[in-house]
Specification:
Oligomer: single chain
Structural class: mainly alpha
Radius of gyration: 13 Å
Shape: globular
Helix content: 40-55%
Strand content: under 5%
Distance between the termini: 31 Å
Length: 80
């Protein structure tokens, strides 16, 4: 999933049967070092690119900063 896999990642790849997408995304984010609250928000947001987040973290970017960098811009007509 990432260019430079983070050591220790693997629980999310185990064959535990069908898992919903949000749970799968949450697993990857927590394994990559995102705190639970932030990981939950990111996992449930369809506008967040999980692969890009994990690539930034793999390259040394702190999870909080990676989330800020890749935060979706407010949509037109909505307040920020």
């Amino acid at each position: 999933m990432t260019i430079h896999p983070t050591p220790g990642l693997g629980r999310c790849l185990c064959d535990h049967g069908p898992v919903d997408v949000q749970t799968w995304r949450l697993c990857w984010l927590i394994e990559a070092g995102f705190d639970g609250g932030l990981a939950t928000r990111l996992a449930t947001s369809p506008d967040v690119d999980l692969h890009a987040l994990l690539e930034l973290v793999d390259r040394g970017c702190p999870p909080d900063l990676a989330a800020r960098i890749l935060s979706p811009l407010p949509r037109r007509g909505r307040s920020a």
